[in-house]
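2024-03-11 09:14:02 DEBUG pipeline.ingest accepted 1 chain
2024-03-11 09:14:02 DEBUG pipeline.ingest length=281
2024-03-11 09:14:03 DEBUG pipeline.predict start
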Amino acid sequence: MKKILAASCLAVFACTMMCLSNTPPVWAQTAPVDSQITVKIDKTRYNTGDIMIVSGSVKNVVSQIPLTLQILDPTNNLVHVEQILVTADGRFSLPLKIEGPLWRLPGQYTLIAQYGFKHVSATVQFDFEQKDIPVEGVFNVKDMSSGQNFDLNYTITGGTVKSIVIDPQDISLVVHLDAQYPGMLHLEIPRLLLDAKKTGNADESFLIFVDDDEVTSFQEEASDSQYRILDIPLVSGDSKIEIIGTQVVPEFGNISGMMFVLSVLLAIFLVPKIKTYQIHI
């Protein structure tokens, strides 16, 4: 009797194991191993402000499972992420604008399209070029000696201007900046603030120093009677530009000249009087 009972229990156990082996686990139904995904983009090179068209397809669609798109920069930092739902036949397409503060580094970027699980993914790479977006501004520069104020217009690419000050003693204009990328600094300097002249009142070239090193690669555009216009190239890390002229706030130069002339005239007038007075004594 015991043998019959043991045999019956063994048979039941065997049948139970067979049933369990034929029943797939729940997770296997939602993550099929043979899922495939494709992804493509419309170009291989993008710039700030461009629109990237991302498209592709998923082979096995699972209802309400989103497609995740991630973009990594050259150092594998995440610069963009979003999720969308694919169509019933597995297709997807969307425009993606290249913008935002995280898009900083030029180089090769990676777009990853992932559907549900990590093994259901595809990647595509593209090049990103940091676009030089000009930043315009105006600094009110005050000459401390005279108390006069001058508006100095500037445009910079690749960085930011922190301050612009005049140095009357060195007859120079000092620009403090933060150059993060190679770029250009465009300055419209009022002649009444700073100028450089040769003998005969012809324009003389400025002396320009970037971080205390003299540079000659700058260019002067067509200046007029009111402004000297300079374009100074920048490299990453530049922090100080000094522009040296021959005269600063020339109103004081004119006053000094008048004082000199008056002094000479007074000397010419008084010296004979002094001599005459001495003779009569």
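2024-03-11 09:14:41 DEBUG pipeline.report The mean pLDDT is 81.
2024-03-11 09:14:41 DEBUG pipeline.predict end
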